[in-house]
User: Fold these one by one.
Assistant:
Number 1:
Amino acid sequence: MRERSENDLIYAETVDLSSLHSIRLFATKWVDNAPPRRLDSIILCAATLTPPGAPRTQTAEGIETTWMVNYLANFHLLAILSPAIRAQPFDRDVRIIIPTCSAYISSPPLDAVIKDSEWSPSRAYARSKLALMVFAKAFQKHLDAYKRPDEMPMNARVVLVDPGFTRTPGSRRWLSRGSLWGIVVYLVLYVFAWIFMKSAEMGAQSILFAVMDGGLLRIPGGQMIKECMRVDLARKDVTDEAVAKTLWESSDKLIEKTEKEQAEKRAKAKKEEEEREKKAKEEAAAAERLEELESLLSTIKKGKAKDAAQKGKKPKPSSKAVK
């Protein structure tokens, strides 16, 4: 990127979106700066989709993987970055781009209880996308409700984007069912994927439109973009305030509960590690003292053996006749 743009001021940092702790470290490090860092846009492209037939998986923190990566990670990240977003100058056009997918239309209601026997990769994916869209609309209201100290209007806007069905590694993994044979079939039938699916570059056009189009400045935030055009939402519950309130509160509680549990685990692990290090140091010190003692005893024994050997070699006094 530096070479292509001829800009040496491009930097990259990593964050694990399957870990609430990693997200907090990343976002807190970014926010903890005075004056606030410049922020022009946030593009939340990360997503995961479990291949059909694959079992349900959880992150190391115990959260269902699809829900965590596709929705909760974005919720957590924006919640921490919110002060930095609101602190930007009034004349800066700040955009938060949230790619989504038409799969949200088939999602069960967010308040519906999904039993383990009813879980499926496609249902989990659709539900995570619906939750992300509900949160996006709610986050826009959260930004709009902020009263700037300079009494200027809020300058940040959320834009939802549906890039369409694209030939990305994620879609390839889903179509191939994550198997070697599936990849072989995918390669054999690639011509159909090439015809009916967009390239990643073509899919990115709607995202770039959402980032750069000046016309979006003249309309309220929270719009949905598809094929570089504004489209209407297909579900009413995306804008339902009661649904958004319940989702926001439940997400906050889940994050608080999980972070508390993980903090306790890290503290316990750190204490155990310190105890192991302390024990190892004590054992090393004891071994060193024992080695010194053995060395001293060995030296003493050698000295005694040497003395004994010298006494054994000492000549006996000769007897002379007494006249």
Number 2:
Amino acid sequence: MFAGAEVFRLLQEGATPKDIDRATKKFGFPVGSATLFDEVGIDVAAHIARDMQTVFGARLGDSSMPQLFQDLVKNNLCGRKTGQGLYIYQAGVKGGDREINPKFTEIIKNYSKEAKEKTTMENIQWRTGLRFLNEAARCLEEQIITSPTDGDIGAVFGLGFPPMKGGPFRFIDTYGVSNIVDLMNKHRNTYDERFAPTQLLVDMAKDNKKFYS
């Protein structure tokens, strides 16, 4: 949901659902992250966002997000199940041919945020990706998962993380822990503390360690 929160922040900054889907599918996710909200159900996301905002506060994202989800639900924009969400669902219309829902566009405008950087494909990929990677590392740090292998298997088979990238921990090793921490700190300086790297990653970068030997 942390990466999902970043998706909605990007939408608040003017990215379109198709921008999000193109970028996340290009990264390797089987389903675009905007479409995924419609598939799971925005009503479901509304319940999750409300509870997670209470527990995590600013770490999750902007405090207006639960209300944004509630407004979408009140307008029956629950996703595929109601025929409309971020997209409009019509019989015979598939994938990239779907129309962005103008009702969604109007509602999101009420929650608009200023973009601090140009919203490019790379910007979308890193902002959503870094949130995913950071929370994966936090799960290991807090012993929610017992090993990087468990985290990678769970992310690939349970969350759709691109299998060709090996999972979040394998990806961090490949890209370099220090490089990931540097990117997180860059985004932290540009945006806010939601991009602050977890202590595990900071320590590993300092000691030049990897998750896998």
Number 3:
Amino acid sequence: MRTVLFDSRANFVNNFSAMYKCFEEDSSYGINPVIVYHDKTTFRENSSINNKEILSNYWDKGKSKYSIEELRKMEKDYFDINLWNMVASDRFIHNKDQDYIISQISFFIYAWEEIILKYTPKFVVTETVTGIWNYILFALCQKHNICFLGFSRTKITNRYYYTRDIYGHFPEMYNKYKQLQHRDLTGNELNTVLDYIKGYKNKPAIPVYMKTTSLPPSIKRSFNPYRVGVNIIKDLMQRFISKHHDYTLSYRLKAQYFEWQRLYRVNYTKLFKVFKQPGYNQKYILYPVHYQPEATVEIWASYYSNQLETIIKLAKSIPIDHMLYVKEHRAVLGSKPITFYKNLKKMPNVRLISPSADITELIKNAKAIAILTGTVGLEAIFWNKPVIIFGQVFFDFYPFLIKVDHIENLPNLIKKAIEQRIDENDERKMKFLYSYITSGYSGDIYSAEITKSEAEILCKELVQEIESSN
């Protein structure tokens, strides 16, 4: 029996609990499951789950377990990147004070170490590294020679895959692409790609996470007396009754304050007409603003994570007859300070594009796409557009990707991108797309609700991944 430890943050309580039951009921899987719930408030009591841990139970001992000198030694010995860099990527902790952050780091190292030593798992299943809690878990997996399996979305194909590092690399897709270098695509394989491209262009796929992403706040919702009253009551319960220690669960009043702040900023952008509609008769480079703070920016593109500075560098590097179109992410409109937009509006060759503008049309009419990381770069491939990338992405082996190695080279790289021509049926592109659309798993691991049959699919896919890692 192989012991598999599931890191079950609040978002995945239902899925992992259902998978646990499948593994426990069917011994033929050969899996001994252990679930780690982050907090009692996120755990729905179920008597059938025996192998479980509550992470917050380790808080009292863990929060002051290690001195800052001891943490520095661990950082040196076990961590690939500095802990402060990871803290910067964590949307739940990056703006806290130093004492709070150090106590959380100490707590997570102590808690995960104790749990790992208690159960000695061979595999750990969690989401791809997105915060300090599972970055520490990843580092301890390396220390104890445990196979780390972080699941991540494949973006526009609405599938998922398991990565084994902190950068979200996609080993199955990469290996499949490398194998295709030694042969031609078969007729059926080529038709699979052509059919997918045709279907995508007729109706561009919307990533699952964009279908459920939050829209800008409204006055009616933000100032609803009933909703505000409920938030006050729940906030008091969080602080004085449940006393949870899951730092990813925001206090309700704090969340309410940020919602009001976002509302003010959204209305400011409307009142002063910050955003404009695109002019497709212009030559332009498209830069989609990335969600922050987020590991995909702070870790995968850590040296370019100050997006204001990166945009300014881009604007200084484009040809004189081009504009830089900067499109805000509709899910985070209002999350940036107003000064962000004011600074960009001062630049004569930068146009701030409305979040409601059609991203597909923007991609189709752009001369090139510049991204830190993200889905837009992947979408651009379907439209044969050159992609300039600053960070790391799971598709960084795409043959026409232009990687920014040194910022001083940016003007030349942009010129190269603009002059690049990608044939619609280029063999390398087709092999890349075949590897992409046929890799990963089809189960819905991100679903909020899950049936037994859906859980069984996820279990079989996980076992398949485990078998492939041996």
Number 4:
Amino acid sequence: MPDVRGCHLPDDLLYDVENHIWFKEVDDGNVKIGMTTIATAMAGKLVAFTPKKAGRSVKAGKSCATV
């Protein structure tokens, strides 16, 4: 796992640096998505998370959740 400027970057994740999110392909063809540590620090206290319905396709550039 490489470290870049003190940030740990696991080898099994893909990153969208501009939007501060990561992606991980899971065995069943779906993708797990998360916020980077930087994104959570910038957001402050998270009070709500509303994802789109599971199993739906999301087009590039469109939202998949509201935080």
